[in-house]
Amino acid sequence: MTDMPHITLLPVGNPDRRALDDLAQDLGGMGFVVELARRRALPQRALDAKRGQFHADGLLGLALSARAERVLAVTDVDLYAGDLNFVFGVARPNGKACVISLFRLYLDADEERFRGRALKEAMHELGHTFGLGHCADPCCVMWFSNTLGETDRKGASYCPRCEETLRLARIRSSGLSK
Ligand SMILES: [Zn+2]
Ligand SMILES: [Zn+2]
Questions:
Q1: What is the mean pLDDT of residues 105-131?
Q2: Contact present, 2 and 31 (Cβ < 8 Å)
Q3: Most distant CA pair in the chain, distance
Q4: Dist. CA 100 → ligand 1 center (Å)
Q5: The CATH number of the domain where 106 resides is what?
Q6: Total number of domains in the chain
Q7: What average pLDDT does the chain have?
Q8: DSSP state at residue 40
Q9: What is the Cα–Cα distance from 138 to 49, expressed in whole angstroms?
Q10: What is the whole-number distance in angstroms between the Cα of residue 177 and the centre of ligand 1?
Q11: Which active-site residues does the annotation give?
Q12: pLDDT recorded at residue 3
């Protein structure tokens, strides 16, 4: 059990404290060792005032600069990237950091549904940091969801194939670092 991946949750902006605690607990239930870091201010350079959104890369940069093994930044503001109107999250593939936004997850959601969405977005972006790509299994959390409906439909876990890819990636990376 000592090789459970360590995740640092980095609140950026003003994400709901309760949502952070729930997410930390739920990621713990998925086999991650989770630590909650001190809140960071939003990088104002990343704000596009006209859009009323922050560029996801600005928050990713903040997460990358944090001194931690693997960072999941969680924010309450709406994010965009590239030519996409919005993103639920972004990740540095095979890297140490990813970001999710809770902003859109509240839509038409009771507490339980919101909590499930946050966990799925977190698991999805973390999967990318472990080198997983998108998965063709619509129940797998690595399925690319374009809409909240798809997020609600898919599961919060990695499918057996993604799980295996992840296991092999972790063996490889621990072999390199030791
Ligand atoms: Zn993805
Ligand atoms: Zn999968």
A1: 97
A2: no
A3: 48
A4: 11
A5: 3.40.390.10
A6: 1
A7: 94
A8: B
A9: 36
A10: 26
A11: 125
A12: 67
